[in-house]
């Protein structure tokens, strides 16, 4: 794939992920997923044209880290969910009576169940957080290499914003930074035409 097509795919992909971040636009995650695929295609085009496989490989490792993190966190969350409701008497064996049992469970029973499972809840959040940060580290490496090869320094800035956002995901501000980083990545891809296509690749 030529560089011009690749930068279009990458820019469009990051833009779709940016738009798909909005809850009423994501269409059950389809738009951001398509955007992610296009972004990887764009990263692959940069890697091939500039002979720097790290651009694509690090982006791919970032995606893999997110997938693993989500899978592990989802498994832990399911275990927490089952344990929590078992602690207040809701089991699969008495599922037919759950509706009647809801009114019989006291607030103190709910709180006791919560505190008994608080450690597992915390572990689930920590696992998810760690994999998000690891993913951001890989993506930042990809963005840094992209900046070095294309001469578009906005790639490097976007990677830094993404990493800071990942570290701060425990607060709303971090999520906003992640969202902004997607827009910066999209702009960086579209800037390649002016900054890189008219110049020979750096040695």
Structure overview:
- By secondary structure, this protein is mostly helical.
- The protein has one domain (about 5-65, about 115-195).
- It is built from 8 helices and no strands.
- α2 (about 30-50) packs antiparallel against α3 (about 55-85), α6 runs antiparallel to α7 and α7 (about 155-165) packs antiparallel against α8 (about 170-195).
How many domains in all? 1
- What Rg do the Cα atoms give? 22 Å
Q: Report the sheet with the most strands, covering strand number, pairing sense and barrel closure.
A: none
By DSSP, the count of extended strands is 0
Overall outline: elongated
State the secondary-structure class: mainly alpha
Q: Output the helix-strand order.
A: HHHHHHHH
Strand content: under 5%
Low-confidence segments, ≥5 residues, pLDDT <50? 196-200
What's the tally of helices? 8
Helix percent band? over 70%
Task: Measure the end-to-end span.
Answer: 21 Å
Average pLDDT across residues?
Answer: 84
């Amino acid at each position: 794939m030529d560089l011009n097509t690749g930068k279009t795919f990458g820019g469009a992909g990051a833009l779709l992920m940016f738009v798909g971040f909005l809850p009423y636009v994501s269409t059950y995650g389809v738009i951001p997923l398509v955007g992610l695929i296009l972004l990887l295609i764009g990263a692959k085009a940069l890697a091939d044209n500039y002979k720097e496989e790290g651009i694509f490989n690090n982006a791919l490792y970032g995606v893999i880290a997110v997938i693993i993190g989500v899978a592990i966190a989802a498994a832990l969350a399911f275990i927490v969910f089952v344990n929590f409701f078992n602690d207040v008497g809701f089991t699969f064996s008495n599922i037919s009576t759950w509706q009647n049992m809801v009114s019989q469970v006291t607030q103190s029973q709910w709180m006791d169940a919560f505190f008994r499972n608080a450690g597992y809840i915390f572990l689930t959040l920590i696992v998810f957080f760690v994999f998000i940060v690891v993913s951001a580290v890989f993506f930042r490496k990809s963005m840094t290499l992209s900046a070095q090869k294309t001469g578009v320094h906005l790639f490097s800035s976007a990677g830094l914003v993404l990493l800071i956002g990942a570290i701060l995901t425990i607060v709303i501000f971090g999520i906003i930074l992640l969202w902004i980083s997607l827009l910066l990545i999209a702009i960086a891809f579209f800037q390649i035409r002016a900054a890189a296509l008219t110049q020979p690749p750096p040695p």
